[in-house]
From TrEMBL:
<keyword id="KW-0472">Membrane</keyword>
<dbReference type="InterPro" id="IPR039544">
    <property type="entry name" value="Tim44-like"/>
</dbReference>
<protein>
    <submittedName>
        <fullName>Lipid-binding transport protein (Tim44 family)</fullName>
    </submittedName>
</protein>
<dbReference type="InterPro" id="IPR007379">
    <property type="entry name" value="Tim44-like_dom"/>
</dbReference>
<dbReference type="Pfam" id="PF04280">
    <property type="entry name" value="Tim44"/>
</dbReference>
<keyword id="KW-0809">Transit peptide</keyword>
<keyword id="KW-1133">Transmembrane helix</keyword>
<feature type="region of interest" description="Disordered">
    <location>
        <begin position="31"/>
        <end position="54"/>
    </location>
</feature>
<feature type="transmembrane region" description="Helical">
    <location>
        <begin position="6"/>
        <end position="26"/>
    </location>
</feature>
<keyword id="KW-0812">Transmembrane</keyword>
<feature type="domain" description="Tim44-like">
    <location>
        <begin position="86"/>
        <end position="232"/>
    </location>
</feature>
<dbReference type="InterPro" id="IPR032710">
    <property type="entry name" value="NTF2-like_dom_sf"/>
</dbReference>
<comment type="similarity">
    <text>Belongs to the Tim44 family.</text>
</comment>
<dbReference type="InterPro" id="IPR016985">
    <property type="entry name" value="UCP031890_Tim44-rel"/>
</dbReference>
Amino acid sequence: MGFFDFGTIFFLIAAVVIFFQLRNVLGRRTGSERPPFDPYTASRTREDAAQKSENVVSLPRKRAPGEPAIDAYAAIDAFAKPDTDLNKGLRTIKDNDPSFDPKTFVDGAKMAYEMIVMAYADGDRKTLKNLLSREVYDGFVAAIGDREAKSEKIQSSFVGIDKADIVSAEMKGGEAHITLRIVSELISATRDKAGAVIDGDPETVAEVKDVWTFARDTRSRDPNWKLVATEEED
C-alpha cells in the first residue's frame, strides 16, 4: 500500500472545507431568490392581463391648445367642389345633422333604389311603406292596385346601377332634401292575364334614368331617409 504525503492530505482537507461552505450557502435563503415557476399561475396571469386589456376603452384625445380643429366639411369638399350651390347645400345639411356624410348617403340611396324598384314590381306594399313618404306611397300603391285589378304582372330583374350622382341638396325647414340622378340597368316586362308581354322586353337590358328626391327630418331620432319625389328622365 502507498502512503499519503503532505500535499495529498492538504488537498483532501481543502476539499472537505469547500464542500461544507457550499452546502451552507446553497441551503440558505437570502430573500432575493426567484419563486419556482408555476405554469398554471403564469397562464392565469396572462389571461387576467388579456382581460384587463380587452376592457380598456380608448377615449377620444382632447385637442391640445393651439391645435387646429378637424375640418367638419372635409368629406363634403371632397365630394362636391367648394363654393358651388351643391357644396353649400350639403354643408347646410351637415350643420343640421353632424352625422351626415354624402358618400354614405349615396351608398344608402342606391340600396334603397333597388329595394323600391323590386318591391314595386313585386307589389310588396310593406317594404314600400318603410321607404316612401305618404304621398309617394299612395301613388305607388294605386298603380299596384290598378295592375292587380287587371291581373297584370311585372317580371323584373335588377342588373345594377351605373351612376348615382347628387344634383341638389337643401334644407326645407327642419327637413333635409337631396336629389339624385340615377342611371340603372333593368330587365322588365309587363304581362297580361294570359301571360302575353304588353310592355317592356323580358330578354333585353334597358337603361333607366330616374331623378329621385330623398328627405329626412333632421330633428327626428329616426336616421332613415324616405323617397319624397320621383321623376323619370327621358
